[in-house]
Every structure is written in C-alpha cells, then in structure tokens.
Amino acid sequence: MARTQQDYDDIPGTFVFDAERSREGFGINMFCMSLMKDDNRKAFKANEAEYLKKFRLTPEQTEAVLKRDYNRMLELGGNIYFTAKLGATDGHSFQHLAAVMTGSTQEDYAKMMLGGGRPVEGNRSKSGKYDKKPKAAANKAKAGKKAGSKRG
Description:
Layout: H1 19-24, H2 26-34, H3 38-46, H4 48-52, H5 59-67, H6 70-75, H7 80-89, H8 94-102, H9 106-114, H10 135-149
C-alpha cells in the first residue's frame, strides 16, 4: 500500500516518524529493540539473515538491515533511536551513524553540528516551495514598493 503523502514529506533528508511509519516499521523496530539483550546480539551476529526471520520484516526492510542502510531503514519505518541499537551492536557510535547517514566523515559531521548544524538555505523543501526568494529579487521587490508609495 502506498504511503499517504504529508506536507512534511517535502523536508529534504528527513523521514518523519509518524503513526503511519510507526505501523510500517513495527517489525524493524522490534528487531532493533531485541538487540538490547546480549543473547540476542550474539544470535544476530552468528546468523543475521536467520535471526531476522523472527520478525515481520518486508524484504526491503531485511535488505536495508543486512546492508546497514540506515537512511533506508528510516524511510521504511525504522525509528532512529531503535536503529541506533543496530549500530551499537556493530560497535559504532551515534556520531558515526549520523556521519554515514549524512554522507560525511565523523570529523566533518561533528564540525558541522558544533557550527550550528546544516544551513537552512537549500534545506527547506525538496520542491522549493518554502525556499526564500534570492536577496536580489527581494531587494528589487522592496525598492519597487518604495518607489510606488511615494506621493508627489
């Protein structure tokens, strides 16, 4: 069944964990939560594909887990805090996961975050409908209003 489009689906690089994604990702999130127990982590690491059969995962979710495609896991209903348990099982920090998910190095990711995060410009929407007008166009429009409002 196709996902119902929401206004927030226009945010680039973000998969909002809403009720629909929660339902879709129940199996993947329960799998990730199972990794809180040492015995489960050992069983998973011994035979990942077999261990995943215990959970109601779609083929796409199974593939995303096996490939450690964290962005795809989120798109398919994974919750970032649950999927981080998979990263921890592999010995990775959350900073490592975030760097991988943003296509940067850990050092560059940390530097970006300490510098205030990603710039807003260019990251408002995929469609561009929320992007601000370029300054030159905004200044031109402002100048036109001023010129038209003068009384002679």
